Amino acid sequence: MSSHYDKINISFRGQLLQSEPMCLHTSLKTGGPADLFAIPEDSEELHNLLSWLGERNITWMPIGRGYNLLVRDKGIRGAIISLERFNKITAVGESLIKAEAGADNLAVVRFAQKMGLGGIGFISGIPGTIGGAVKMNAGAYGEGILERIDRLTLLHNGQIHDFRIDELDYGYRHLRLADGDIVLAAAFRLDAREPFHTEEEIRKDLELRRSKHNVGFPSAGSFFKNPRGQAAWRLIDAAGMRGVKVGGAQVSEVHSNFLVNTGGATAQDFLDLAVMVKNAVFATCGVTLEEEVRIVGEI
Length: 299
Ligand SMILES: Cc1cc2nc3c(=O)[nH]c(=O)nc-3n(C[C@H](O)[C@H](O)[C@H](O)COP(=O)(O)OP(=O)(O)OC[C@H]3O[C@@H](n4cnc5c(N)ncnc54)[C@H](O)[C@@H]3O)c2cc1C
Known about the structure:
Elements: E1 15-21, E2 33-39, H1 43-55, E3 60-63, E4 69-71, E5 76-82, E6 89-91, E7 96-100, H2 105-114, E8 117-118, H3 130-136, E9 139-140, E10 143-144, E11 149-156, E12 159-164, E13 170-171, E14 174-175, E15 182-189, E16 191-192, H4 195-212, H5 232-238, E17 245-246, E18 249-251, E19 259-261, H6 267-285, E20 294-296
Parallel strand pairs: 2-5, 3-5, 4-20
Antiparallel strand pairs: 1-2, 6-7, 7-15, 8-16, 9-10, 11-12, 11-15, 13-14, 17-18, 18-19
Helix pairs in contact: 2-4
The structure holds flavin-adenine dinucleotide.
Residues 27, 61-69, 83, 101, 126-129, 131-133, 135-136, 138-140, 182-183, 213, 219-221, 294 line the site of flavin-adenine dinucleotide (FAD).
């Protein structure tokens, strides 16, 4: 661990942890320590923390609930910032609701439902926070969350800015942000919808996921993006990779685009398995798969 973390001299009501194992904060249950893991209590603390890090040239990365993260075994040099305490959801107009980055996806759908609004039922069962969903342009059934967003509040170059969604560069499972940018909140433009319709949408989504995604082991959901017009799982199956294992990491027997931790998997096991899958798919189908899971940490 770097020596300038030895004297952390900012007052903090939230949590400030040193050498925090990232396997505790990722759904894949792997990953070495982050030098610093900070959970600021409010905007003032976030501001003070960023100034403190900036003055010391310490890099940072925001995190949601770690449902889409593979952290390398050497861990993270710098700081991880969790916005889990920034989770307010408010109505800001007749058909607009604003959710802070740390709000859970399902909580936002439920809030909209109470207001008689809908149109984001497809995020009900996507595990994680609004910040993570926005960065990943998370979606399901052909819809992506950014299509439903009116404005994003970003911390960009140290300043808070509201961006219209058409000012941003995004696509399937990605939103381009500059290093160090933090999504603070998202305003959703929704449609009038009877609460019982939303209830039905949530029920169907959760039921489908229980039947399809119940892989029995920790995972990060789909490990690879679907290539245009194709399903990654089909290509992985065609390449004969279903069930293949490296150490504790395995291509799930249940859903072949899920790589799972069958127990004690290292990040390197996942990285090696991902290379094997990509090579096999390329050799069999001529398609290069691209990881959907974000791979971070010291090489
Ligand atoms: C069982 C299972 C099923 C899944 N199903 C789906 C699905 O159907 N569709 C889908 O799209 N995904 C799915 N996922 C993947 C995952 O749930 C999504 O990618 C989710 O949006 C990640 O949210 P998170 O809050 O955990 O983000 P994290 O995994 O913590 O972070 C993801 C990325 O977002 C960045 N980030 C997080 N918060 C912020 C912020 N405030 N500002 C800037 N950047 C930020 C992180 O730095 C990281 O790069 C599934 C995962 C699992 C385990």
